[in-house]
Write a structure and sequence with these properties.
Layout (H helix, E strand, L loop, with lengths): L16 E4 L2 E4 L2 E2 H8 L3 E5 H15 L4 E6 L6 H10 L2 E4 L2 H9 L7 E3 L6 H10 L3 E4 L2 H13 L4 E8 L21 E2 H13 L3 E7 L10 H19 L6 E3 L16 H14 L6 E4 L3 H4 L3 E12 L4 E5 L8 H5 L5 E3 L11 E5 L8 E7 L7 E4 L20 E6 L2 E6 L4 H5 L7
Parallel strand pairs: 4-20, 5-6, 5-13, 6-7, 7-8, 8-9, 9-10, 9-11, 11-12, 12-13, 15-17
Antiparallel strand pairs: 1-2, 2-3, 4-14, 14-15, 14-19, 16-19, 17-18, 20-21
Bound molecules: ligand LLP.
Ligand LLP binds next to α10.
Length: about 425
Amino acid sequence: MNPPLAALPQPAGSPYFQYRNSVLYAEDVPLDHLAALLGTPLYVYSRAALKGAWNTYRSAIGPHKVLVCYGMKANSNLAVLKEFVRLGAGFDIVSGGELERALAVGADPARIVFSGVGKQAWEMRAALEAGVKSFNVESEAELRRLSDVASHMGRVAPVSLRVNPDVDPQTHPYISTGLKENKFGIAIGQARDAYRLAHALPGLRIAGVDCHIGSQLTDISPYLDALDKLLDLIDALAADGIRIGHLDLGGGLGIRYSNETPPSPRHLLAPVLDRLRARGLDHLELVLEPGRSLIGNAGVLLTTVQYLKHGEARNFAIVDAAMNDLLRPALYEAWQGVLPVRPRPGAKACNPYDLVGPVCESADWLARGRVLDLQQGDVLAIESAGAYGMTMASNYNTRGRPAEVMVDDGRFYLVRQRETPRDLYRGESTLP
Ligand code: LLP
């Protein structure tokens, strides 16, 4: 059989990362220039791509009151957060650490919702101190702890219950959260009792209803199934004398990694707002918690080929990025596009390569079976790496995490320095 031909590279995800004169650019900055100047692995973000993604939400909203709380676990670099503050976003946080980051860039606490299944007392105190909009509470035990913490501080905590509506979001099992076998949320059948408890506890004020059913959703029907269940619950609560101020539908809108055609925010919001109107509930504020769809395709990870190794069964391109820098392929067998930053002209018969890193694990791969015309020293861009890239990076094998750069038109800013080994053992000590 003839070896396959290397196809002309086609950026999949973003119009902000495109070829010009056979060099891949981020906006007006050539990526080979950034790699040469700052080294690899290197995360590169596009400010315009981030703003473009934000505008897909803004333009879908219309007159209805909608608060978009960026799910900052997707990418919590301060430069990224600051852009979202400037654009008027709120934040969805899941830890005391994320709260500190949000406050460090001047986020308005009244636009922060605090999600997460395991909030500790110190995190509750910090969020109460700051004055967050709502705690998305996930169990009766958490309701009781939050009420105690707030009462001790002489405060009243605003709460939404994260309801688990038991709908199948049809996504990877590790990022599916709204099924009854998942650890998340309060089962829809128990939610009414939990609201009665919240209503009775002295340190709490009921603010809303919340759900988040999963991530990388490419169809809106699971959202609408969940919404219907939540609207029934809101009616039932009204019968119990419990009034809700906002409805939080979580995050989860998918992005294009290869050939997906995920719904746009407009596709999601139009039927959601229709249903609110049809049920006479259009006074409810709508809250969304998108992460990936705001930043996923605003970033790439640059990496350099160190060695080519033609084995008996497979061909390996050993690159300088690894599973510690970008975990999604190893953890979810995720597919992300790989583009040569300077493709060689002309289609050429090539080997399909597995892109692997230097980490001592067979799970350390970034892409498999990609037909690429490669040579040692080539710089590659791994696409759609803006979300859940750097935030899931680790220091395994005492590898410093990559530097991060934000491009803005023809300029670029180093927004996080590369870690050195010394950074990694700072805080450690030996016995006398
Ligand atoms: N709200 C809550 C409560 C969440 O748990 C999440 C994500 C979001 C919002 C934002 O979801 P998004 O819009 O980004 O889908 N590491 C995985 C994704 C894990 C998502 C966890 N929760 C990945 O790389 O695919």
